[in-house]
Amino acid sequence: MAVNIHNLIAAISPDVFCNPSLKSEVKKILKENQDYLKAAEKAKPIDSAYMDFEEVNRKSGFDLEGIKNPIEQHELEYDSTGENLEPVYFWILDSLKKEYEDMKEIYKLVDNFISSPGSGLFSEMGAKATRMQEEAMKILGNANQVVKSIINILYDLKEFNIRLDLYKKLKSEKSEERSAALYSLKQIWMDTVDIKRNTTSLKGLVQQLNYVTIIDAFMSVNNSKDLDKIDLNDRVKKILEQRVSEFFSWLELSEKELKKRFEIEKLYLKSQVSSAKLYARWAKPYLKAARALEQNANPTAALVTSFNTTLFELILLGQSEYKTNDDVKKGDLPEMFNKLEAKKKIRMYSPIIIIELKFRSIPERAGQGYGFKGKLEAVFTSYALNDKELKTLREELEKDDVGDALKLIESSTTEGLGKIQEEIDEYINDKEKKQEGEKKNSDDTNPFSALFSFLKSDSSQKKDDKDRSISPDSSYEKVVRSRAIIKAREECRKFYGLYKRVHGMPGF
Known about the structure:
single chain, 16 helices, 5 strands, elongated
């Protein structure tokens, strides 16, 4: 992860968490392009300072003590060469759920690692990643053949549509459309059916026997009776009589046959699309696994080529719940805040705790896997964010995790493949929508974009949500955020103290 999560939070909510000296620059960047990752490069969070909770809780919520001092942060660092690091991680994960009844969600925001080239883990993880990549490429190769087949079918269906449109116009109420359609169909008949007679075809008779008027006469008649009205010799009339009769027979039969072939081709298109979807489902697990096995943690001086060393970067976000009603009952806030919350006049704010874990480990073979013992660096930090800020935080972290190369692949495929999907929908989805009442099915996934969906964020984004800006807090919302910040700080300090006591260290 290239972006610092604390700088990103400061960019998302600069009025509350950003260093005052940088606030104006950060807000300028957001105003110009709403690029939170770019703003995070400039932003820095406010330094954490001690808060006396007993004194703060005696004051009024309108004093905004939480906003004046919004961040609680604690750090610890220790070597544990005799203890595996997995229990530490799972103790934190389980304790967040156990100790806080109002803990709503726990997210793993970052999970990165990197091994020294000389370690056995490097070779093993590299081999696993290679296998995943090879399997994915085999499936994508098969999918590519199916895509080519679908494109060819689409071209055929377009040709069928053009021909069938002529038959429709032949039954039009407008004489001009009927006449034009008839001329076109006659030309098609001469080029595809009659031409097989070679020298005895209409075109052959013109070239070989100099029957220069026969094509004009053929094009001008609408039925066999019209031949009597044309001034031609009997020999030409007899030839035309046979050809005109044959043409109108072909006209009737070819329409039926063309409609059958059109329906068969659409069924074949549907089967090929289903195959593409199947390949997409098969490929996605391998693509995701290959991506997860990439070694993308930030290398440090601790990573020596010939050493048996592995570095881990893990970030957890615990989101709890702040209820204004609790502070109203205690008398810290007036009753009006319950009414504002009920009418949704104010946004709600969630206390969050961010736990950053950095492991420097010496991997040891243990059965089929590895055991990890070494040095732990842990940072516990508290914030209070509203729902949109939390959503933006997760989206921006996922976007940053994709990387420039993957974003390039996504951008280069989405537009072109989207065009193809539109054409597919034109032929196979209309009937299904009528039958199912336009009910969305999980199998209706775009077979093309599905192949690259591992590049995209899992969070749903509305297409019409173009404005990603986050409006500043109102006066009442500042009060609510302040109270949520105080709760977040209390929970962060409590959890930090609990961790130290459980692991035999002096704590709060």
